[in-house]
Amino acid sequence: MSVSVKPTSQDGVLEAAFGTPVDQLYAAATAGTASPALQRALELRSFLAVAEEQVACVRGTIHQATSADRDPVELSAAAMRFDAQWLEAALDARDSYTAALGELLRTMPPPGPAPARQVQLAQPKITTALPLPARAAPVPVRAGAARARRP
């Protein structure tokens, strides 16, 4: 099942934040009309869907291994340790994605047009001084002299 249609624990939060059902949010992202905050939120939601699916899978494995109708001799401590590590990793991932999504929603700009910002560019002034020659060269006699007019 695609992560875009798999429900997550944070779908209600996303719908409240963006004012639109999750399937329409994905449609906006697919159409290219989604804001950068929405695109990032949907990426995090997709990762969260996978992590929550892993939690459910491990939980099912543990329930199956420890069900009352199973023979206790089949229960393996090594398998249970592995399942516990897997569950811990899946829960850590789920919690991290939930926290990241919450942080994104808390810090994203409010919906609507972005306020116009005035940008003032600094234009540095460059001042230079020409180096003075050590000894001035002699000026030619006719240098800069105006021509005499002919009558």
Please give a structural write-up.
The chain is mainly α. The protein is built from 4 helices and no strands. Helix 3 runs antiparallel to helix 4. The longest helix is centred in the middle third of the chain and has 31 residues. The chain is elongated and about 130 Å long. The model has no long low-confidence stretch (mean pLDDT 84).
Q: Could you list some keywords that capture this structure?
A:
single chain, 151 residues, mainly alpha, 4 helices, elongated
Mean pLDDT score: 84
Q: What radius of gyration results from the CA coordinates?
A: 36 Å
Shape: elongated
| Unreliable residue stretches | none
Order of helices and strands: HHHH
Q: Count every helix, treating DSSP H or I runs of 4 or more residues as helices.
A: 4
- Sheet-strand content, in percent, reads under 5%
The total beta strand count reads 0
Instruction: Give the biggest sheet.
Output: none
Helix share, percent: 40-55%
Structural class: mainly alpha
Give the termini distance in whole angstroms: 103 Å
Q: Summarize this, please?
A:
With 151 residues, the protein is mostly helical. 52% of the residues lie in helices and 0% in strands. The chain has helices spanning 11-18, 22-31, 36-65, 77-107.
List the helices and strands and how they pair.
Blueprint: H1 11-18, H2 22-31, H3 36-65, H4 77-107
